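Co-fold these.
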Amino acid sequence: MKQGKCSDTISGWHVENEKRAMGPFDKGDCDTMMENAWIIPLFPLFSFLILLVAGKSMKERSAYIGIAATLLSFISAAMVLIERFHEPTYQLHREWLAIGKASIAMGFEINALNALMLVVVSLVSFLVHVYSKGYMHGDDRFSVFYAYLGLFTFAMLGLVISDNLLQTYIFWELVGLGSFLLIGFYFYKEEAKAAAKKAFIMTRIGDVGLLIGMILLFWQTGSFQYDDIFAAVQAGNVSATMITLCAILIFIGAIGKSGQFPLHTWLPDAMEGPTPVSALIHAATMVAAGVYLVASLFPLYEASETAMLTVAVVGGFTAIFAASIGLVQTDIKRVLAYSTVSQLGYMMLALGSGGYVAGVFHLTTHAFFKALLFLAAGSVIHAVHTQDIEKMGGLWRKLPLTAPLFLIGTLAISGVPLLSGFFSKDEILAAAWVHGHVVLFWIAVVAAFFTAFYMFRLFFLVFSGDGRSEAGDVHESPATMTWPMIVLGILSIAAGYVNTPWFGPFLGDFLTGESAPSHEEAPLWIMIVATAVSLAGIYLAWLMYGKRSLARDWLSSKNSLTYNVLLNKYYVDEFYRMTVGYMVKVLSLFLQYLDRFIVEGFANVLAAFIRAIGTAGSKWQNGQVQWYGAVTFIGLTVLIVILAFTGGYL
Amino acid sequence: MSWDTLMQYKWGIMTPEWIILGVGIALSLIDLLMPNDKSRRPLGWFAFVGVIVAIVSLVALLPVHTTTILNDSFRLDSFGKAFKLLLLFGAAFVLLLSIDYQPREGMKYYGEFYYLFLTALLGAMVMTSSGDLITLFVGLELLSISSYILAGLRKAHSLSNESALKYVINGGISTAITLFGMSYVFGLTGSTNLKKIGMQLSTLQDSGHQYVLALAFLLLLVGLSFKLSSVPFHMWAPDVYQGAPTPVTAFLSVVSKTAGFVIVLRLFITIFAAAPAQGKDPSSMLLSMQDYIAFLAGATMVIGNVIALKQRNIKRLFAYSSIAHAGYILVGFASMSWVMIDSIWFYLAAYLLMNLGAFAVLQIITDQSGSEDISQFAGLYRRHPLLAVLMGIFILSLAGIPGTAGFIGKVHIFLGAFATDPAHYVLASVMVAATVVSYVYYFGLFTQIFFRPAAVHEPIKLPIGAALVVLICAVGTLVFGVLPGMVYHFLDQFQHFDDFLH
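Predicted complex below.
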């Protein structure tokens, strides 16, 4: 560890800039935004710290601090993105810790992917901050909510600009902590408490995979830096099996965070958190972190066909699996949650099929339209005070702004032409087809049909027909809630045009560097098929829930078994409870009994009796200690016997 | 040995020990002469100042080269210096805690409290610096016997009496096994001097003798596992921790455990590292017996963490947690990488900060409520946000979450397990699995503090000593977690403790 005085601190910094070959002491050109991008995550951190200390006295004025901080972050992120259009990748890191010969660095990097993610995260976070001012109005812990939002945003932005795996891991965990705090925000609700715990533990299971994968990579390449890892992989310094192993272990981390099968069950439960949180964390940002991780380690995955196939298959399976569950859910937020799981599956499918641009593209458009859908759903819940779609209906006229915005989001996610979701989904289907994953391609097509169906089922049940709700006084949400939705509505329509077959793949060129061909040349019929299935899904939903010329139970009445399986989410939660849950309980109970009954057994069972008869108790106390000593002797004897048989001395 | 030879020795290198001894004797005399109705609290501050002066004198000794006196039975080497720092800092924090300790039923023996702490500390320090089996053993016993009395100082409290009794009996068994092992070593070499023993044993060729030495290895390992509270000598810990006065529990779980690791490292490396063996590495008994340590480390981590899941009493919970942490540190020892001692030192330092911090909070809460049930922590965030956040830091660190000292410590031990050839995959996996299990109870506590409504709304009074400990430990936990490079820079001066055998 170099301990630098003020003057030579700069020499400790390794500045890598391909174009300008900046010397370590040359501070001349340091005022561009990209070089100061490290400041972007700090704004929300300051917001968090200020609110932590002064939140109580500021009450609802806390919102302004949070909003101002994220606005600053967004503006800086936008400047960084614009700069990144004509500047090369910028990286800055400094040795943080040296263990023996290995050195661990901390720093940040602005490449195309990071710059894009910075803008997406800070923008959605900013809009959610604004929206929450209306949504959380009147909550006792208003300032705490904004403090947590600040902490989460800080962690997420930090995650996005990390240039090495260790730092990514640190922020990855911090993001998890933020999510834990926010899901459990209504801690007086048992469900919220349970959901927070479940989310934390389920994602931690994935994180163990990530940690092991990361450490194996470090062991193999001697570095946590992404660049060094890619260089070592490309130079063939790491064996093929090791690459596959590491890639899959890291993917397990992504499975946990991005709610992929089989670690998806926490995400629907996480809907117990306040709705703006669902929009920010469980739709647009944190759950996308898994996809982002795979995308940023893409060269590693590309080096292993097995790993790529695993990603694609898990993604494809999750896409259809979650979509089928979404068909029958009746809680507005749970439908959206399963839809999120399914869409994240799409992104994984894209990445696993080699469609890097397609995956990142869908990540971006999904962030906008899913955040829009959640905010609009929040606005609906705000108006009718229920989450059960069976109790809603006829809200089209009563919510004149929310309803059309929700429709925009629904159209976008369903893949209706000319909206953002259409272009990104088409890109994914093309990627799957071009890379020869025929089965996965058709699975994705069916999932697209499901998506269109359940989203419009949701839409018609909530907005069309007669009001089924008894809540009389339904009114539109305040402006602080509608404005963020309008912005997201515009983005849900427009964001697709950054990468289209008609106007040119700007995003693809930006992400991959202009030299590489980025757009998948796919047959035109894919686009037609995609459009057709999405319209078919919408039409079916309209027949059943809009026009109602088709009985709602025409299919489910004949297939009640399938219906129940779907309604119960394939019984995955039950399966976990019956297997893993019980195993852990049994093991701990067993050891507990070993400790309680064998060790302290007689003394404890007879404790009351002993007290009653007074002095006789001491004998039992003695019994206990004998047992302690006996355990030691047994342990010693076992060791000596093992030594006698395996030591090789006799 | 004539007077002249005695005066030639550089007694200066024992300055910290002299100071502790002097303060201890002075305290016992003052306590004797003081009227019974006078408060003994100033004596605690006196002891605290004594420890601080000892720390200062030790820091002044840091640049001194490796020196030995008294026929090589007392050594001031970098190992001794580094670990003595831990012991002294730990003792200083514990003293601060004990000044404010106020059990519900009241306690009369504060004077004994302070000077027995100092004699226990003195024993630990002598162990750290000893180069001879005799001094090592005397130090060990001084520490143990003082601790037995300390555990029983709440005389009116039946659990405390039970705790002391159990501690004495188990300690006796431990001593017997340890001595038995030492007697084999002495029998094989005819010497009690560690360096001579090491040299003698490096030429041990007879297979029968090697077998006896391997037996001695196991006897010492099991006997000393008492001090580490590791398997198979862990069962006393929950009972003793629960009954002992809280500062004593803190002392046992941190200072006494550190001393345990000191004696284990000192003994095993000097005696067994160079002795030939029949096992997997013929050149070193220590390396061929590695798997036994690894096995015990694994068992310790699993048992400690899994049983902790079910505890409702906070002190028992921390007892099992401290068993688990001993397991993690044993992983560092079992992997025997070349950064072993550095990583163990770091972990012990991190553990000292986070565990003593947690114990300080624990003492504040349990003293006030008179109950040791976990539910006393419910709604702490509502009652005292700052204290809750600081306790949150300690819990996160104990769980090994990034940004805290506990994380860095675990990472180093973990990397150490991979840095050897062949790497210890199984052991590392067990460590990860055990760590995951530990999240359940650490975050259970975390949930209590932050998400449960408070049962009582009585405001929390912060006694000055405990508050100081909480604050310093929290800052230390974060600094060690964020800037570990600083700590390793400090450790650089010891050059991986390579003067161990010189």
